[in-house]
Design brief:
It is a single chain. The protein has 197 residues and is of the alpha/beta class. It has a domain at 74-167: 3-Layer(aba) Sandwich (Dna Topoisomerase Vi A Subunit, Chain: A, domain 2). Helix content is 44%, strand content 13%. The protein contains 8 helices and 6 strands; from the N terminus they run αααββαβαβαβαβα. The chain has helices spanning 3-13, 20-32, 35-51, 68-71, 86-95, 122-130, 145-158, 183-191, and strands spanning 53-54, 61-62, 76-83, 100-104, 136-139, 164-167. The protein has a 4-stranded parallel beta sheet with strand order 4-3-5-6. Strand 1 and strand 2 (61-62) form a beta hairpin. The longest helix has 17 residues, at 35-51. The radius of gyration is 21 Å and the shape is globular. The N and C termini lie far apart (69 Å).
């Protein structure tokens, strides 16, 4: 195998979710792709590194600081939804039901991967809350062990600094079957049940 191809496979394999076989397929695809497409891809990678930064307020990825959400004066500045990753902001915005601000942690507490609270953007969140303008912190981490642990940790730190800390509702997905739901999901569905009239 040619050294440049081996190096490319090695670099692809470093990406999350890319195993050795996928890295090989991507590398060999790039070998066969037209030079103009390869140059456009390389330019896009360099551009994202050169032109993007983290919003100084919410820590989301942005081209301009502050980001478009934080700069929008129409947003409810008394609520901050804490999420794990920038993609979570995009998912929330697609729903059109939330008009507050966000805070991106860039991960979750995960001792198995040596990720502790100091590796996340929690200090920046606490600095925002210390100003006293935020009345509610909404915890929007994923409903798994790491997400729950992170939510509990943030809740303990945020509660003294704000009027209310809430958690996104969890339970059965629309279109899901009870027989396929895990125990935790069913328990959360019972806990979060609503009265029907």
């Amino acid at each position: 195998m040619a050294a440049p191809v081996a190096r490319l496979i090695e670099q692809f394999h470093k990406l999350p979710g890319i195993g050795p076989k996928s890295a090989q397929r991507l590398a060999y695809y790039m070998v066969r792709m037209p030079a103009a497409e390869a140059e456009a891809l390389a330019e896009a990678v360099l551009s994202v590194k050169e032109r993007t930064t983290f919003c100084s307020q919410c820590q989301n990825i942005t081209e301009h600081d502050p980001c478009s959400v934080c700069a929008d004066e129409r947003r409810d500045r008394t609520r901050v939804c804490v999420v794990q990753e920038p993609l979570d902001v995009l998912a929330m915005e697609r729903t059109g039901v939330y008009n507050g601000l966000y805070h991106v942690l860039h991960g979750v507490i995960d001792p198995m991967s040596n990720i502790g609270p100091d590796d996340l953007r929690i200090r920046e969140l606490l600095a925002r809350l210390a100003g006293g303008a935020v009345e509610e912190v909404i915890l929007g981490t994923n409903p798994n062990v790491e997400g729950e642990a992170t939510a509990m940790y943030v809740q303990q730190l945020a509660a003294p600094l704000t009027g209310r800390v809430s958690r996104l509702a969890r339970g059965l997905p629309v279109g899901g079957d009870l027989e396929y739901a895990d125990d935790l999901t069913l328990a959360r569905a019972f806990q979060g049940r609503e009265q029907v009239t």
